[in-house]
Amino acid sequence: MKQIKHLLAAVFAFVSLVSFAQESKTSELTYDLFTTDVDNFMDVLEFSQVKPEKFFAFSEFTSNGLNFGFAKQFGSLYTGLYVDGQLPRFYSGTNVTEDGGKTYTATISGNGPSPSAATVDNCFGAAGSSAYFPESILDKGTSEFSTVKMLFGFNRVGVSLAFSTNSSGSYQMTLSDGDTFKSYSYKNRSMTGTLNAGTVISAEKYIWKPRLAVTYSHDALSTESIDFDGTKTQTIFLQSSYLTNLSASLVSVWEFISESALKQSLKLSLTGYNYFYPEVTSLVTDSSNPTLNSETSYKKSRLNLYFTPTYILKTSFGKGFELAGKVTLQSSFDRTFKDTEYLNGAPQANPTDSVLVTITPWIDLAARWQVVPEKLSLNFGSRLLFGNVLRYKYDSVLYTSANDNWTFFYSDFGCTLRTGLTFAFAKGIILDSSMEVFTVDNTGAHSSFDDFWNTSIKLQLSVKM
């Protein structure tokens, strides 16, 4: 037994270096109807369910990231740490091409996902421009993100702090034929901080679990294009925008106490997002013709509200089989206001105001069968989508939309079935897995077994001692 534990500890140390996302595979495939310690150890309401004697740790099997969690109890103080992120990707290259009697030199460098050939062609304003760049570099990688989260728990009160960054790429490109020269740069990065607090209050007939989260985020996007034609003409196009978001989420859960096998709970969630673009600016500078110089700017704000009531039922048949289901009805309100647009300080476009109201229902179902109690469990989950109803209105000084009525969209009908298993190698050492079996939507049925080897099968390992 000690050899097995030492082996699994070594495996855990390895997969901690190649992993991704703090959610158990059981929760993912059952749509949060069944959870594990992986879900609870960083939850401000459920951390007390973990109860590690020495420590708790987990990681997930993937190939491009760093993702692990660790928790330990110090007397009455519970502490948890979670780190999630992708390994940074840097790239650079130079290509020299002889074409039509000219020598083209193309350079590219950056980090994160590299631009596609179509993006390069668009940036340089000519189809085929991408052929001059190193083909092995283009269109590689995905958006990069990283998250660090810490939790402190005192009896039934939990407080967590989280900080994350996200980047959809940053790159610099140049293309020259000896006479003309053009460069293009792109940067897009966001930062987010979240404070989350919750507590558990017991009453005679129910357990009340309120939670409040406040999040602030800042996004920055900038592009710059410089075009030099070999004489005295140099055109610079600069565009930048900044987005700030202050959001708050209030969640309240009532778990009704019952001596029967049927358990009921009610969850109410109210979330608000306030987006504000301080200023979006486009600047064009032409050294040969100052009359072409221009500066365009405008301000924009957006408010999103989501109210989501959920009713949950769970029941068990003996100790080996459990069923669960929940009904959710989400209502959302989305208002976007764009202020007057200015060109070189003069108003050009009138303010616009749009409102979108959406009502979306869905049902989640899940089952858990303990084939070998405390050793092997099979899990199943399904989501049923019933479309949505929306109402949209757009106003400006010159135009008001006529679509100011309720519309039903059946295209969002669908069904998804997932499955997976959990296996305990030893007490406290658990392998969790999930995979999507099939999906039915308005385009038809799609089975994962049609392309089995490319199906996303996910594995996760947790250790509690």
What order do the helices and strands come in, and which of them pair?
Layout: H1 2-15, H2 25-29, H3 37-40, E1 56-61, E2 65-74, E3 77-86, E4 90-99, E5 102-111, H4 117-124, E6 144-154, E7 157-176, E8 181-199, E9 201-202, E10 206-228, E11 234-256, E12 263-286, E13 294-317, E14 321-338, E15 341-343, E16 346-349, E17 352-372, E18 376-396, E19 406-426, E20 429-441, E21 444-447, E22 458-464
Brief account:
The chain contains four helices and 22 strands. The chain has helices at 2-15, 25-29, 37-40, 117-124; strands spanning 56-61, 65-74, 77-86, 90-99, 102-111, 144-154, 157-176, 181-199, 201-202, 206-228, 234-256, 263-286, 294-317, 321-338, 341-343, 346-349, 352-372, 376-396, 406-426, 429-441, 444-447, 458-464.
What does this structure look like?
With 465 residues, the protein is mainly beta. It contains four helices and 22 strands. It has a 16-stranded antiparallel beta barrel with strand order 1-2-3-6-7-8-10-11-12-13-14-17-18-19-20-22. β19 (406-426) and β20 (429-441) form a beta hairpin.
